[in-house]
Amino acid sequence: MNMHGLSFNALPPIDLPFRFFLTAPVFIILCAFLILFSGETLWISRWQPNLLALTHGFTLGFLTMVMMGALLQLLPVIGGVGIAKPRLIVGVCHSTLVIGTLSLMANFIWPSALLAISSVILLTCGIGVYFLALAWVLVKKLSQGDSIIGFRLAMIALLAVLLFGVGLLSERIGLISINNMGKMLTNNHALFGLAGWGSLLIISVSFQVIPMFHVAPSFPKIISRYLPSSLFLLLVLAVFKPLFIVPFIVLIHGVFAFSLLLVISKRKRKIPDSTIRFWQLAAVTLIGLNVFYFIPNKYLSPLVSQQKTLLITAIYLYFYLMAVIQGMLLKILPFLSYTHLQQKCLINFSAMQAIPHMHEFMNKKHGQWLFYLHLITGFALFYTLIIPSTFWLLSLLLLIEFSWLLYLMIKTMRLYFLTLTKINSSVNE
Amino acid sequence: MQANLTFIKVDVSGLAPPEPMTVILNHLSKLTAQQCLLIKHRRQPFPLYEKLNDAGFSYHCVAHSQDDITLYIFHQKTQTVFDEWLATSGLAISNLATSDLVKGKG
Questions:
Q1: Which ipTM was obtained for this model?
Q2: Using alpha carbons only, what angle is made at residue A112 by residues A107 and A118, rounded to the nearest 5 degrees?
Q3: For A358, which of B18, B54, B60 is closest by C-beta distance?
Q4: What's the rounded mean pLDDT across residues A252-262?
């Protein structure tokens, strides 16, 4: 393939992804207070209204928020094309996602038709507009084909999550009747959300970012080409035969975990790196979950076995999805800051001296602390699910971990804007 | 006319971002009109492409495979010289192996 003088105007202004990133930890801080004020009863069952609010705070408020922001920047970096009218699209999507998620969480705690209708309209608008904007990019032929196919499938999964969710909310306020399909819709809403939108996107992103950021070999072709499509196919089949298909979804995550560990182990420069530790934690978690999932309940303590589904979901969410997202944030925040500043230097090479070292954007030790905080908080979550009276500890640890993440983000962004001012003033001199 | 172009070879394929961009910028800051930067990279540096033209540079990229890229960057005023080199090199550019490219000094 030859690319000669193509015109790219793809990298959106840095404040747009930063807007998503900065909002995400605030949602978890909010969730920490929700845990604190809900008490032990929160953990009785997955159908507890406050637990549903908490789950959506994590999945929509944190995971989706970061992933939507990250995709805006990753597509131009790895595919060379960005969304049209990024400021307008982000303005609409970010604000509606924030208010829509808050409405949805409030609706679980204090159910009302007004809150339910608001959340349906706002989330449909936010996610729908984002879907259309990304679809416009993803239907084009881009390079890095295998990942782009995964991105497309993840976006379709996001649309399915939205449709299932809208169906469930509409049923709650009496707009439609879904008879006895409520549980099926809820399960598929969760499955497509976590294993589709969340995991499929992470897997597809990993095919690009692990070799790129960590100078590792590419994933085996059989994995990068067929694993995302296979996972998506399994998700579709799970709608019809969940009991038979879900074990295969668990297994395919195990396959990804082994290939991830293999690729990571072959990276050229094995320097200590918190992002790698987060990826390794995610891979080990997926392997551990395979073991846990397939162990017959009779070998587990009754305390554990009666909460098995909730435990698996929580571990998957916290030690896999959120671990990877946090690891990625540690890498892409300084990378984006640096790349945007470097672009300015093409006009004025002397401005390169004004750019601080990468580690000043994200101190390695600070990244390590985030990793340890994540581990401790994850264990506290596990413990709270079995012994709910420790909810206060989980709340406290979440507050500390995500305040720390927020601080690291603000620190990076502050340095970016300070350096930008320096570069701009040197250009004007 | 035989293209009068000196190729400065840089291999950034073993570097982690943002080091490749730093190395490329350092070389571009010293690149003269008679020189062409020949970069061996693992991926297309799209964020760099975005600004090269505005900064007075042209580029030409040959993707040998998904993770093996050869990128040429030169001053816009050198475009004709580069095109001549490309035409007279006698090689089908899309089929070039990296080793062939390195031999193709002007």
A1: 0.78
A2: 65
A3: B18
A4: 98
